[in-house]
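Worked example

This section walks through a single chain of length 197. The input is the sequence exactly as stored; nothing has been trimmed or padded.
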Amino acid sequence: MSKYPEFDKYEDLLRERLSKKRFQHSMNVADECFTLAEKYGADKRRCYLAGMLHDIMKEELPERQKQYTADSGLSPDPVEIATKSLWHGVAGAYYVREVLKIDDDEIISAIRYHTVGCARMTLMEKIVYLGDMISAERDYKGVEKMREYCYKDTDLAMSVALIYQINCVCSKCGGLPVSTFEAYNYYLKFNKNKESL
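Given that input, the structure is written out below as tokens.
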């Protein structure tokens, strides 16, 4: 069960909506967000909830994800609208706001930017972005080093994470939204020794 009894209804919803693997990932991200929030003095309860719900639209029908992205009012840029793998972040933020009626702009924004990032992210937004990258089941090459960065300095960790993510997207000839470029340029100044994975 979730760390907070009032979130059990969301856990049940995720269990219904997601595959077993994606559900476990979502709960792992929630736990990671809780631990990062504890480390950095953020609101543990709200970070945990944002982590739980970040992928709530990930396995929804593509046409519904695309429609929610278009209807969101969250200013998706042309690359986000054209890129199927990016719809779930914007669509998830819309779903949490409009369907679950969670009236918390920071949680909504953390879900909206958890894949693409943006400049000047709030602590919660960074925690959800990074929590998603280092959740317990992640096993990509360099993940242990990434975990070290995340528990050392969130701004440095964001720079390293963005370098990694941009390299992954470019290696597949994928598109990058403007917000990702802005995030990269913004967080680069915190990476004084040009560290990467």
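What to look for: The radius of gyration is 16 Å.
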